[in-house]
């Protein structure tokens, strides 16, 4: 059974995820930085640095949301970053941010499904995703399509939540994620389910070696996992 945001509804995971992010889009950035105490910003910076030697010129940011990872990727001095997302609400917030920061010529945000990308194969110098893959309806299909649009030898860099394994971080994290975060999330986002879905979807999602196995299954080579901050999140790297 897939973990979905709204358990009492009949829609599939993809439609529910899009609705959920549309609902919380206006509060998403604020909640992200408050609930992670700003660590998410450091994680994205660290992930982008891993692509420095590759000097990618055309970058695809999957599940771009409000565009934070796409903006961070500008540190690599690419010609262009294209961000795709299934939530028009998140993209609308992203577009406002790009306009304010005068970044519209560098970053293009498009409505699109990561499991059915409308790009030809071997197009991108890098494909990046932060906190997106956990939300895919079909993980293997999404990762396989990311592989398809990458140039041979080019890399994907993925950030996703993972589960700390050791005492006392495991216990602290579980308490925070299950009891504190859903309460703050509910009050600020005004969505009853979004921040319950977050810990539940992390719990059900493959992390560490399990995730690397899925990456290899869909065709990625030289896969690596770099745990961040006691294993609360991890960066995964794979090469086409
Ligand atoms: C937690 S947000 C992450 C946004 C951004 N990458 C960040 O780091 O803040 C997850 C995003 O994934 C998007 N998403 C989920 N499934 C998707 C899919 N199949 N294709 C494209 N976007 C998807 C959601 O709409 C949402 O905006």
TrEMBL record:
Name the chemical reaction catalysed here. a 2-demethylmenaquinol + S-adenosyl-L-methionine = a menaquinol + S-adenosyl-L-homocysteine + H(+)
What EC numbers are recorded for this enzyme? 2.1.1.163
**InterPro entries, sorted:** SAM-dependent_MTases_sf (IPR029063), UbiE/COQ5_MeTrFase (IPR004033), UbiE/COQ5_MeTrFase_CS (IPR023576)
Q: Which Gene3D superfamilies match?
A: Vaccinia Virus protein VP39
Quick one: which residues bind S-adenosyl-L-methionine?
Answer: 66, 85, 113-114, 130
Query: Which EC class is the enzyme in?
Result: transferase
CDD domains according to UniProt = AdoMet_MTases
Q: Which Pfam families match?
A: Ubie_methyltran (PF01209)
Q: Which PROSITE patterns match?
A: SAM_MT_UBIE, UBIE_1, UBIE_2
MF GO annotations: demethylmenaquinone methyltransferase activity
Q: Which is a GO BP term held by this UniProt record?
A: menaquinone biosynthetic process
UniProt similarity note: Belongs to the class I-like SAM-binding methyltransferase superfamily. MenG/UbiE family.
State its role: Methyltransferase required for the conversion of demethylmenaquinol (DMKH2) to menaquinol (MKH2).
Which NCBIfam families does the record cross-reference, listed alphabetically? MenG_MenH_UbiE, PRK00216.1-5
Please state what the protein is called.
Demethylmenaquinone methyltransferase
What gene is this protein a product of? Answer: ubiE
């Amino acid at each position: 059974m897939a973990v979905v945001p709204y358990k009492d509804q009949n829609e599939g995971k993809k439609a529910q995820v899009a609705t959920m992010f549309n609902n919380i889009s206006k509060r998403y950035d604020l909640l992200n930085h408050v609930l992670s105490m700003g660590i998410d910003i450091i994680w994205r910076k660290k992930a982008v640095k891993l692509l420095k030697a590759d000097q990618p010129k055309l970058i695809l940011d999957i599940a771009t949301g409000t565009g934070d990872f796409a903006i961070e990727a500008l540190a690599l001095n690419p010609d262009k970053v294209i961000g795709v997302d299934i939530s028009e609400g998140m993209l609308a917030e992203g577009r406002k941010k790009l306009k304010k920061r005068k970044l519209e010529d560098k970053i293009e945000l498009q409505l699109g499904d990561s499991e059915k990308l409308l790009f030809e194969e071997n197009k991108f110098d890098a494909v990046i995703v932060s906190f997106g893959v956990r939300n895919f309806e079909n993980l293997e299909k999404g990762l396989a399509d990311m592989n398809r649009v990458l140039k041979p030898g080019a890399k994907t860099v993925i950030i996703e939540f993972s589960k700390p394994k050791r005492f006392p971080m495991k216990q602290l994290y579980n308490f925070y994620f299950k009891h504190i975060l859903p309460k703050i999330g509910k009050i600020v986002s005004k969505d009853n389910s979004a921040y319950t879905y977050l810990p539940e979807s992390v719990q059900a999602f493959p992390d560490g070696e399990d995730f690397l196995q899925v990456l290899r299954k869909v065709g990625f080579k030289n896969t690596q996992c770099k745990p961040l901050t006691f294993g609360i999140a991890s960066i995964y790297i794979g090469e086409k």
